[in-house]
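Why should sequence recovery work at all? Because a backbone constrains its sequence more than one might expect. Tight turns favour small or flexible residues, buried strands favour hydrophobic ones, and helices have their own preferences. The token representation captures these environments compactly. In the example below, the structure is given first.
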């Protein structure tokens, strides 16, 4: 299963649901965020390591996430950030149903379901050579796209009710209600962080306010300030610059600030985008 969608749309939650409703529900669900682990450590984290495989390795060896998920489900979040050399090794696991730990000369059979997720444009990465085509086709058996929150605003009442109930469970209190004015305010937001941002907003409001009901006044301090209206462009160059700046900002939001991916989305080189970032006083990061 391949889960697609922007960051924060609930891909891991859906992966848990798929596992829970399957015949593997009593077996392990093992998750790993590929983008959060340095490349130098990712191989051992995924595939495990034999005793003494590298300096500092456990003298007894260690099981990797693939073996820990044997019989159950392995969830690979942000699969698009996996290095090419490990993509080849993962493909072998999927095809041969066996894993070879780092520094070992023996293979271990595994039986697992792999659910992969990404916010990246995998076909584009296949085209530019940063993601293997054979692995993409192997993962892309059942693709499911999760829509961003801004495209499912009619779900806000039920989503807020669900999140507030979960927050109440954590604190052992009664769930807070949310009124129509608060919901109307939430509908006005763009939600670049999707469900993750919505949960964070509600969690802050619950923690920092009193009362049984969240209204617009309780939520407003935890929402971004409205973007001030831009002054009207006086020349064609001003209009072009304003549009260019808006497009760069939007690309950075969609790619979580990653300059390389934003440049790819915009169809410009990384060097060109860095010049534009400096020109417009915008920021991004290399990762």
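From this structural description, the recovered sequence reads:
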């Amino acid at each position: 299963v391949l889960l697609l969608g922007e960051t924060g749309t609930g891909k891991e939650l859906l992966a848990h649901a798929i596992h829970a409703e399957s015949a593997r529900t009593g077996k392990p669900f093992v998750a790993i965020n590929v983008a959060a682990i340095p490349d130098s450590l990712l191989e051992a984290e995924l595939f495990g390591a034999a005793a003494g495989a590298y300096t500092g390795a456990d003298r007894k060896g260690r099981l990797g996430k693939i073996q820990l998920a044997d019989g159950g489900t392995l969830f690979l979040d942000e699969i698009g950030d996996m290095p090419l050399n490990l993509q080849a090794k993962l493909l072998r696991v999927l095809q041969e149903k066996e894993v070879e730990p780092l520094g070992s000369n023996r293979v271990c059979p595994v039986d697992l379901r792999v659910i992969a997720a990404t916010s990246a444009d995998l076909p584009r990465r296949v085209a530019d050579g940063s993601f293997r085509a054979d692995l993409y086709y192997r993962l892309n058996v059942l693709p499911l796209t999760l829509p961003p929150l801004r495209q499912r605003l009619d779900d806000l009442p039920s989503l807020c009710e669900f999140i507030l109930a979960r927050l109440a469970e954590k604190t052992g209190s009664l769930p807070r209600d949310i009124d129509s004015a608060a919901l109307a305010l939430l509908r006005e937001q763009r939600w670049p962080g999707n469900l993750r941002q919505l949960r964070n907003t509600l969690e802050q409001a619950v923690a920092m306010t009193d009362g049984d009901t969240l209204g617009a006044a309780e939520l407003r301090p935890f929402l971004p300030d409205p973007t001030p209206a831009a002054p009207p462009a006086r020349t064609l160059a001003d209009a072009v610059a304003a549009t260019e700046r808006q497009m760069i900002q939007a690309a950075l939001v969609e790619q979580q600030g990653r300059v390389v991916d934003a440049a790819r989305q915009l169809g410009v080189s990384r060097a060109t985008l860095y010049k534009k970032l400096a020109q417009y006083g915008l920021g991004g990061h290399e990762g």
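A few observations help interpret the result. The first strand starts at residue 2 and ends at 4.
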